[in-house]
Write a structure and sequence with these properties.
The chain is an all-alpha fold and 112 residues long. It is built from six helices and no strands. It comes from Paenibacillus baimaensis.
Length: 112
């Protein structure tokens, strides 16, 4: 996603962006926020998830989250076997949270 599209989503869907951002920041792939990264560190991922929700492609959320770890340089192949179950549970829990805000995001998209 390009910077222009991310900013468009952030400006035109502020409620949806905020709701998704809360969940993505809680997930905090590879703990960047915990290590002091800027608060907007995950805004591109947030925008990608928001776009998926707006476009009614909910089935893509889980794979996008898994791929995000690879984008940060820590793909699932680097997760030690003993932590894979925990990794996938974290992804599943986050996917459920994102799916739970779908209606709020769609309502805002319709009104925009």
């Amino acid at each position: 996603m390009e910077l222009v599209e991310k900013n468009h989503l952030k400006i035109n869907y502020p409620k949806g962006f905020y709701l998704v951002k809360q969940i993505i920041d809680e997930l905090d792939p590879v703990d960047l926020l915990d290590m002091g990264a800027p608060k907007d560190e995950h805004d591109f991922l947030t925008a990608d998830v928001l776009k998926i929700l707006i476009d009614d492609r909910l089935e893509e959320v889980k794979q996008l989250l898994i791929n995000a770890y690879s984008d940060y340089g820590f793909g699932v192949e680097k997760v030690v076997d003993e932590y894979k179950e925990s990794f996938y549970k974290k992804i599943e829990d986050t996917t459920i949270k994102i799916n739970s805000i779908y209606n709020a995001v769609k309502e805002e998209a319709i009104l925009s």
